[in-house]
């Protein structure tokens, strides 16, 4: 759709911000207990370490600061999460609960290559 082409850079920034916000919310749930969940992972566990990365790097992606590095690490984290937690439960992502991990992995890989977009702190620093 050529009518959306002028908005592409801003939609890129919106994708980055929304992906960062959603992952950040997973981190707040694991580390800060908000929104309330049934169980918080024990400090130092793999799930807790993932939560710390989701919280800190998710926030950096949300605001668009050090986006390429943060997104690259998060892409690896999501690949690791998929193969460690989801793939052993079955082959198909729709059945093993790994759809979000796969999507996050590739969205963050894209952001690692493409950067933050024009509406970001990285753009202001450049």
From TrEMBL:
Topological type in the membrane: Multi-pass membrane protein
Q: Name one Pfam family in it.
A: DoxX
| Record's keyword annotation contains ATP-binding | no
The compartments listed are: Cell membrane
Can you supply one Gene Ontology CC term for this chain's record? plasma membrane
Please report which protein family the annotation says this sequence is part of.
Belongs to the DoxX family.
Descriptive protein name: DoxX family protein
Organism in which the protein naturally occurs: Paracoccus solventivorans
* Taxon lineage: Bacteria, Pseudomonadati, Pseudomonadota, Alphaproteobacteria, Rhodobacterales
